[in-house]
Amino acid sequence: MAKWGMVIDLDRCTACQGCVTACQAENNLPPTGAVEADRGRNYTWMEMIPFSGEGEHPKPIERLLPRPCLHCDNPPCVKVCPVGATFKNEEGIVGQIFSRCIGCRYCTTACPYTARYFNWSTPKWPAPMSDHLNPDVSIRPKGVVEKCTLCHHRLQNARDQARAENRPLRSGEYVTACAEACPAGAMVFGDMSNPESEVSKLAHSRRAFKLLEDLGTDPKVIYLREGD
Amino acid sequence: MMQHVHTDPRRGLPTAPSSNIRPPIEDIKLLEPILYTGPKFYITVVCLLAVIALGVFAYMTQYREGLGVTGLGRPVYWGFYITNFVFFIGISHAGTLISAILRIVGAEWRRTITRSAEVITVMVILFGVGNILIDLGRPDRMLNVVLFGKLRSPLLWDVCSITVYLTMSTTYLYLPLIPDIAILRDYTTKHRWLYRMLALGWTGTPRQHRVLELLISVMAIVVIPVAVSVHTVVSFVFAMTIQPMWHSAIFGPYFVVGAIFSGIAALIVAMALIRWVYDLGDYLKDLHFNNLSLMLLVMCFAWFYFTGSEFLTTFYGNEPAHMGIFWMKISGPYAPHFWVMVATCFVIPVAILCNKRTRTILGAVIASICVNIGMYLERFIIVVPSLSQPRLPHAESIPYSPTWVEWSILAACFAAFTLLYVLFTKLFPIVSIWEVQEGRENSIAEVTARLKTYLPEPYVPEDKEQPIGATP
Ligand code: SF4
Ligand code: SF4
Fold first, then answer.
1. Domain A4-224 is in which class?
2. What does the alpha-carbon distance between residue B366 and residue B91 come to, in Å, rounded to a whole number?
3. pTM strictly above 0.95
4. Which pLDDT score is estimated for B219?
5. Contacts of A82 in chain B (CB under 8 A)
6. Which element (helix H / strand E) includes B433?
């Protein structure tokens, strides 16, 4: 069984926010406008967050770090959901059932990375955008929680394709929109359970670290430190 | 007037009610609120209904537009509604718990106050649950909690224990009400169908009394662990997450203590209002307020002890994520809330209640109102600061301020609670009549007998004539 994960090389990342935009287009994230964004109501499944976890004291390096949902292997958000609307599947993807979520927002408060988003109102897109929504991704109604799904629909499409051609899924066939869009090649996506895959080799490099590792959430999105 | 009732032939009612049920002649005052309704009542009801209507309108707006009409956002996903939930469940604690404890220890002064305490529990718990439902993004999917319930979620623990608690405390309110309902059925004319139904055929036979008293004492014992569990699980909603200043083992007992604390305060305010509105100074005496004030005073110190432990542990441990929240409360944006809380939960009530001269009914009421304001603030600064400075992203902190929707719903909750309470006093005696009757009849003898057993038998010299000290 595959274990999907991602490595983000901070040495390559230029903080261009290509991944953020790609994610928004791919996953039908509605634009909210400045006023709502000021109130913490924007949707950024992939978000650039200020991070000062690197560098030597007293001169830490302040930088921006792309943060999707980290698809924790021990996800605090899944434990607390009273209806099982968020779950971890056998391939390690932490998914969200929009049609079951009751909107209690317990998962959003339990996620230590603040990687979950709540639909404060019915999403709206201005005129030209509304014609170009991705048909593979469902539109979330108001009142439910959403978050990065690791572009799960792409996995389904790739599987369907492979099944139609009567062959196993090939490595590299399933890539997330952010990894695909990154112009610097800073994001590597793939099967962590395969020791030969690029992603698992990078995940075991000396530069690898996990966000808030001491919490024991065991994220499957792994970062590579600058340098070397 | 009473006599007239019994001879009313048109209704075909028993003209001589069962002799086992004593007429409430001596306590006729307790029936006055039920028998007479003045203009003041209607004015109160209209005012309360107006506030409730505002809350309903606010909720309709929220239902239509989504939770965007509140002041919530990322990362402060929880605000007033969750604070209300914890606050109301906390208040609901006192009633049943105090009444159960007083019954178990056989405190005779309980007789006139247990009912008003038990009613608080039942009425207020509805608003605790209600606020959770108001907080849901998709209240229409509420039943998913039953259909897909996952027992590993602390929210489901809440659902279970609150349901049990609501059922039990309703039963515990209802059982001692039965003999009083029978009195109303037999000696009044209003709402007869209701009383006949609710009296469950009570005729006051000795056997019925035995069964009832057994049931009440069993319930009094069983309801205590349930009450403690309820507030413990409410705290677990926070403590089970790994968020800074939530993830703490002290939360269970801390919440239970806070709940009893605010519950006693609410009871004092309610009793003072009942005493004032229905002129029941004969039933709710200075003694009751004095005893409850002393209980409140003890809880002040208990609360201070827990708060002190919590903050000292955090401060000494000095973990950055926790300290961020700590300083937000001590000297940051939530400092006004924090210091007002310390003043109203500890400094002011202790100053008032420690002094015998200020420990009057008025003093107790002022202290109680302070405590409830303080306890609301305490719940607020438990819920909000921990959310407003998450571990990641650093440096992101969007202040939370509730909108008119949240304020209106809060006001409506208080108004609706008051309305339910007022309606209860209009339908049922707010002081237990039969328990007062029973107290007058039996307790004095019982207590005298009990007191005798506390004391050593007096030494009786065999030879009564012999003066003490004289050698035989
Ligand atoms: S990052 Fe947050 S939302 Fe994603 S799996 Fe971990 S706890 Fe859940
Ligand atoms: S908001 Fe939805 S996904 Fe999150 S805990 Fe509640 S029901 Fe589960």
1. alpha beta
2. 17
3. no
4. 93
5. 145, 149-150, 153, 155-156, 159
6. helix B433-438
